[in-house]
Each structure stands twice: as C-alpha cells, then as structure tokens.
Amino acid sequence: MLFYSFFKTLIGQQVTVELKNDLAITGILVSVDQFLNIKLDDIHVVEEQKYPHMMAVKNCFIRGSVVRYVKLPASAVDTALLQDAARREAQQPTVPAPR
Amino acid sequence: MTEEAVPVVEPNAVEEPLDLVRLSLDERIYVKLRGDRELRGKLHAYDGHLNMILGDVEETITVVEINEETEEEVIRTIKNTAEMLFVRGDGVILVSPPSRTGA
C-alpha cells in the first residue's frame, strides 16, 4: 500500500518508466492503481530512433508487472516522509500478534 | 513450567530477513537485479515485495560481447545514474547493507 499511496502523490509529475524489455517511456503520470499499473499522458520514447513504432502514441497504460524502474523527479519526493512510512509499514505485523 | 516467554520486541533487532533491510533505511545499499544489473543507492523506502525507492543511484549493467574476429568474450559495463528511482521488487535478487560491499 505504501508505494500505491506514494505514486498517488506523484500524479501530475513527469516520470520515466523503464520496462523489462528495455523500452523507456517518459510522460506525465495520470493515474496508478494497487497493482502499480500506470497511466501516462504526453508520452515520448527515450530512444525514439531505436523504437520508432511508438511515435504516434500519445498516452498509454502500462501493466505494473512489466515495469523495471520508474525514474522520479527528486524534488517531488519527501525522503524523510518516505522513510517514516517505510518504518511504519515494517512494523505492521504480518503474523498475528501473540494471543 | 507455565511461564511463557514474552518476546521483547527491540526496534533494532533482526528477527526476520526483512529487518535487515529496515536497518538499511537512509543508508547506501547494494542491490543485485535480474538481467546482470546492479544498483548502489540510498534506501528511502521498501515494502514486502522488495519494491524500493533509491536516491543518488548508480546502475551498472554487465554485458558480455563476443568479438567477431577473435571470438573472445569481451565484458563491458554500462553505468547509468538517477537521482531518484523506484525499483520494482520482482527484479530484485539480493539486497546488501553498505558495510560489506562499501557501496
């Protein structure tokens, strides 16, 4: 849930999504869901000469499972908040509490 | 005999493997990924899938190429950097805290 909430805070930012097939797409983050599926607007492929078949595509949906990386603007990320959230998430018991 | 051992939960204790990752928050770590990729960067967040957010990241991709003429294997590394990177956990092979690797 942490990363779902985190990506929701990044809606409207420009991000670069690198896929497992090495295709990298830059665009404005429009929406995200619990599977970390991603919708991007105003997209362009980073290596357009190498992958010209995407030139006409202006927006897209990316299945979360094919994502390798998402490059983010550091200015849009509150790292202290993220670390606190990660610690809190780690404390949530994954096994039922004793008795 | 009936005395039950009440586990004392120390915040810094390593009880399960992921605790090791928790203790690496705000530290530089080394991450080995599928596809001969390695990352070094500062860990800002992670979850149970090993999805992660890393800061000031250096990515190293190792490529083995065969020289056409000599048929020798040439190992080439490609380095990339990113200031802030989300890494999807399904590609992660191992995560190592900084001290061992000097990441």
TrEMBL record, chain A:
What this protein is reported to do is described as: Component of LSm protein complexes, which are involved in RNA processing and may function in a chaperone-like manner.
Note the SMART domains from the entry: Sm (SM00651)
**What is the protein's given name?**
LSM complex subunit LSm2
Main localization category: nucleus
Q: Where is the Sm domain?
A: 2-76
Output the InterPro entries linked to this UniProt entry. Answer: LSM_dom_sf, Sm, Sm_dom_euk/arc, U6_snRNA_Lsm2
The molecular function terms of the Gene Ontology recorded here are: RNA binding
Q: Which domain of life is it from?
A: Eukaryota
**Listed GO biological process terms:** mRNA splicing, via spliceosome
Subcellular location per UniProt equals: Nucleus
| One cellular component term from this protein's GO annotations in UniProt | catalytic step 2 spliceosome
Keyword annotations for this protein? Answer: mRNA processing, mRNA splicing, Nucleus, Ribonucleoprotein, RNA-binding, Spliceosome
The UniProt family comment states:
Belongs to the snRNP Sm proteins family.
The record lists the organism as Ambispora gerdemannii
TrEMBL record, chain B:
- Output a single Gene Ontology CC term carried by this record: Lsm2-8 complex
Keywords attached to this entry: mRNA processing, mRNA splicing, Nucleus, Ribonucleoprotein, RNA-binding, Spliceosome
Q: What is its main location?
A: nucleus
MF annotations from Gene Ontology: RNA binding
InterPro entries in UniProt: Lsm3, LSM_dom_sf, Sm, Sm-like_LSM3, Sm_dom_euk/arc
Gene3D superfamilies, A to Z: 2.30.30.100
Identify the CDD domains for this entry: LSm3
**Which processes are annotated in GO (biological process)?**
mRNA splicing, via spliceosome
The places in or outside the cell where this protein is found are: Nucleus
Q: Which residues form the Sm domain?
A: 16-101
Describe the family membership recorded for this protein in Swiss-Prot or TrEMBL. Answer: Belongs to the snRNP Sm proteins family.
Subunit composition and interactions: LSm subunits form a heteromer with a doughnut shape.
This chain belongs to which protein, by name?
Answer: LSM complex subunit LSM3
